[in-house]
What does this fold into?
Amino acid sequence: MANILITGSARGIGYELVKKYAQDGDTVYATTRSPEKADALNALAAEYPGVHVMKMDVGDSASVAACAAEIGEVPLDVVINNAGVWGGLETQTFDNMDYDNWAFEFNVMAMGPWRVMQTFFDNVMASDQKKIITVTSQVGAHAYDHLVGYSYASAKAAVNRLVTALSQEKAGTGVCIALMHPGWVKTDMAGDVADITPEESALGVHKVIAGMTEADSGKFMKWDGGIHPW
It folds into this structure.
C-alpha cells in the first residue's frame, strides 16, 4: 500500500481523491486549512482508519512546516498539490483588479505548491513511487483562448512554469514531477455549468497518476489521460 499526501482535501476534487485512495487501502494524509470545519472529511477518516486529517495552509510556510513535522520521515509515494482558491471573476478583470486577492491567489496556487514540493521532497524521494502531481487548470495554458480571471490564470500559469522547471532540475533522479488538468469540474468554484462531477474527475486523475512514471515528468496531463496543449 502507498502513502499519499493531498492538499485541499475538505471538498471537491481533493475530497474525492482522498476517498478513492482510501478505498484502495492506502494511507492518506488529507490536509485542509480548517480540520475542525471539514465534516465530510472527518467522517471519511472515521470510516477509513488510513485517512489522517491534518491541518495545513499551503499559503503559510509555518503551517506547511508544522504539518511536515507531524508527518516526520514517512515516505510519501504520491504528493498531490490540489489546494486552490477563487476570488470571483468580477474582481480580476482588466477594469477591476483586486490586487490583494491577486496576491492571495498567487500565494496559494503558485507559491503554495512550491512550499509543499520543497518541504516534502525528501519524503517523496524516500518512497517507491516518487510522484509529485500539481493540479492546475487549462486557463494557465496559452492554448486556452476564452475569457479568464486574470488573478487565477496567472497563478496557474506561474505554477505550470515552476513545475516544468523543477522537473528539468530533478531529471534523472527517479522522481515524476508533473501537472494535471482535472477537467472542468462541478465544484464550488465552477458551479453546475461545468462538464464533469468531482467523482468523475477524481476517478480519471487517480487512474492517470497510477500509470505515470519518471518518463512523464514535466508533462501537462489531463484527467482523461491526454496531454494538454500549452
The chain is about 40% helix and 15% strand. The radius of gyration is 16 Å. The first strand starts at residue 3 and ends at 6.
